[in-house]
Amino acid sequence: MAEPEFTARGVRVGRGMRSLTRAGRVRISxxxxxxxxxxxxxxxxxxxxxxxTVRASGPWFAPDDRAQAELNGRRYRLRLTAPDxxxxxxxxxxxxxxxxxxxxxxxxxx
Length: 110
Prior knowledge:
Elements: E1 6-15, E2 18-29, E3 32-36, E4 55-57, E5 66-71, E6 74-80, H1 94-105
Antiparallel strand pairs: 1-2, 1-6, 2-3, 4-5, 5-6
């Protein structure tokens, strides 16, 4: 498997009012965004879709660590508080890096 284009650990993933995981992981790998239930390699996939069909955004009214992603018609709330583990350097908040990575991977700019 190729190196992921984006990875964030310690991610809270929810749908509606329901929390699916409090310490999950989100990665974009092989052109597919994937929220996972656990930070480790044993985490199971919550959902996945080709990046061209995924909508990702940061709500204008929410803090910088929040993002929304729509995969297969289902909307997920993401709280990305941990730094990008691949880079581990200061920069834009992880939620903004996630939305930019989705747009870049889909060829919609970044």
